[in-house]
Amino acid sequence: MRFDYDIAPVTGDSKWFTEARFGMYIHWGLYALGARHEWLKGREFMTNEQYHKYFKRFDPDLYDPELWAQLAADAGMKYFVVTAKHHEGFCLWDTKQTDYNVMHTPAGRDLLRPMLDAFRARDIRAGLYYSLLDWHHPHYTVDVKHPLRYNQAFLDAQREKDWQRYIDFMFAQTRELLTEYGKIDVMFLDFSIPPLEGFPGKGAQEWQSERFIRMVRELQPQIMLNDRLGIPGDITTPEQYQPRGWIRVGGRRVIWEACHTFSGSWGYYRDEESWKSVDTLVKMLIDTVAKGGNLLLNVGPTGRGEIDERAVDRLRGIGEWMKRHSRSIYGCTAAPDGLAAPGDCRFTYNPDTHRLYLHIFSWPFKNLHLPGFSGKVEYAQLLNDASEIRMVEGEQEMTMEAGAFNEGRPADTLTLQLPVKQPNVTVPVIELFLR
Ligand code: GLC
Question: For the structural domain made of 345-434, what CATH number should be given?
Answer without folding.
Answer: 2.60.40.1180
